Amino acid sequence: MTKFASLTVLAVLAAPLAMAQSAAELDTNGDGVLTIDEVQASFPDVTSDAFTAMDLNADGALDANEVAAAQEAGLMPPTDG
Q: pTM for the complete prediction?
């Protein structure tokens, strides 16, 4: 399966969970970014490859801009707030 197809499947599977959570709820340590562990806690189907594809600056965390870009691209479902 291609990376795009994998990420699309992920977005479809995770959508019902994401709508019930806000971005702040995903960021459990409150540092303003999402680590792979924080993402996988809510979306266990997110692979390291999928996370890496969303981590545009390759710093190991998703900031608000990366989350927004991933959501706009359909790689991550929208959050509630």
A: 0.70
